[in-house]
Amino acid sequence: MPQSPTGSPAQLTITTPPNPTTGTSTSPHFTPVAAQAQTVQHTASRHSGPRRWLRAVEWALTTSPHPQATPTTLALAQDLAARMDYDTGHVRYAIDRTITRTGMARSTITKHAKILREMGLLAWVSRGSKTNIRRLLGLPGYAATATVYAAVIPPAYDRAMSRRRIGTGYQARVVIDHRQQVTPSPHPQGDRTSPPSWTPSLTVVKEDGTVKVESGFNNTSRKRASRSQTSTPSQNTKTSRTTHRTATQVARDIWIARQVRPRVTWTQTEPLRRLAYALRPLIDQGLNAEQITTELHSWYLTWRPARPAAYIRAHLSEHHSQRPAELLTDPHSNPHWQAMCEQRQHHASVLETLASSAVRTDDDRRTARARGWHDFHQVADHYTDDPDDALDLYGTTLCARAIRLTASSAFKQGTS
Predict the structure, then answer these.
(1) Residue 275 predicted with pLDDT over 90
(2) Which of 160, 177, 210 is the last residue of a domain?
(3) Are 381 and 316 members of one domain?
């Protein structure tokens, strides 16, 4: 079950915040996100993973709720979070499967998905359509283009949590302030043995989503400084191994690990930074992502290690001197591997093209509405498949008239 920010099970209680002047409850003011700002290209919210996103959903539903938000909104958010990609926060809408899992009606799911979008908590990556995605991928058969949502966190949540944003929109990041407040010293100011009572001059900050925190202070006492210099040999060895790597090299390691992890199944539970650290011996030998993937597949693991990064480090340290030379050959010499890489690049380019062209413009709406007045059955069928998309494309007036006329014509045919 999803956890609240305090660690307890998430429970939705939509309350009205008290008025700071009178102490009485007032109706919170809510401004919905415009339809044009509900895509990843135009949203003001930043991207997030499922865990942090659920905390933001709970906060938004309890502090400044949507007028139509209910506990069902949180239930739908929990179902989406359970299926989200852990890194990108992307999830397929899959409304038919959602109906089977949750037992909600189709209209209920579309209503609460719209509520999450208007609260700035969901954004479209691609809009569903009747376009045959299998034909674009060069595959037989028919499959409509799926609707894909992205988990996003609105700026109001970061302001409430005192988090400073870097950048704007979907690609924005946050920096969390972790400076430690030093309590005033109870000793007199003239006592040289008292600890310093002022705030350290270097602010300790951590970027949201990172693991390592670098910090330093200029007011460390001599006693503490001398004590910190006497460390164990293992700590000195670890420091000497990690300090020589530059930020650019670390970023490249993570970039390579990001390509290796989805291709090697048993490494997908490991965070990117730990996996990148474990793969450093192979990266330092000049191997790229494809070569490292070939190396890991050559181990022929039929089980999943509980700690993949630790297993990789242990295996490399044990078999480093006796690794066969043929495993380090260029995998592009294999025609089957090269064909697979080309097909994967083709699929990625097609998906990127669909995502970039999925944003609907006002010209598209005007053209569709002009055609819709001459084909009410098409408008009604579109509304039956995806009500939100039909209302956005054709408008409320045209959809209502098409449904009314098609229903009356069907009734007349049935009675005749």
Answers:
(1) yes
(2) 160
(3) no
Cβ–Cβ under 8 Å, residues 409 and 376: no
Residue 137 and residue 61 in one domain: yes
Domain assignment of residue 171, yes or no: no
Q: How far apart are CA 279 and CA 327, in angstroms?
A: 15
Given a cut of 50, whether residue 200 has pLDDT beyond it is: no
Domain with 251, as residue range(s), is: 247-339
- Predicted local distance difference test score (pLDDT) of residue 244: 75
Q: Is the pTM above the cut of 0.70?
A: no
What are the backbone dihedrals phi and psi of residue 169, each rounded to the nearest 5 degrees, phi first?
75, -155
* Contacts within 8 Å (CB) and 24+ apart, 391-397: 392/35, 392/360, 392/365, 393/360, 393/364, 393/365, 393/368, 393/369, 394/365, 394/368, 394/369, 395/365, 395/369
| Whether residue 279 sits in one domain with residue 382 | no
How does DSSP assign 255-272, residue by residue?
Answer: HHHHHHGGGSGGGTTS-H
d(CA 303, CA 288): 25
Q: Is 374 exposed, middle or buried (0-12, 13-18, 19+ CB in 10 A)?
A: exposed
Query: C-alpha 120: how far from its chain's center?
Result: 14
Domain end (from 117, 144, 160): 160
What distance in Å separates the CA atoms of residue 199 and residue 206, rounded to the nearest whole number?
Answer: 18
Q: Which residue has the tokens 């704007």?
A: 168
Q: Provide the token pair at 351.
A: 């998906």
Same domain, 383 and 287: no
Summarize pLDDT for 397-412 with one digit per residue, the tens: 999 888 888 887 765 5
Domain count, the chain: 3
Listed in sequence order, the DSSP H helices in 35-172 are 50-63, 71-83, 95-102, 106-118, 133-136, 155-160
Per DSSP, the residues of 161-179 read: TTEEEESSGGG-EEEEE-P
Residue in the block written with tokens 């972790």: 178
What is the spatial distance between Cα 350 and Cα 254, in angstroms, rounded to a whole number? 25
Closest among 304, 65, 132, 249 to 77, alpha carbons compared: 65
Residue with the larger pLDDT of the pair 331 and 106 = 106
- With respect to residue 301, please indicate whether it lies within any of the assigned structural domains: yes
State whether 334 and 378 are in the same domain.
no
Tell whether 294 is covered by a domain. Answer: yes
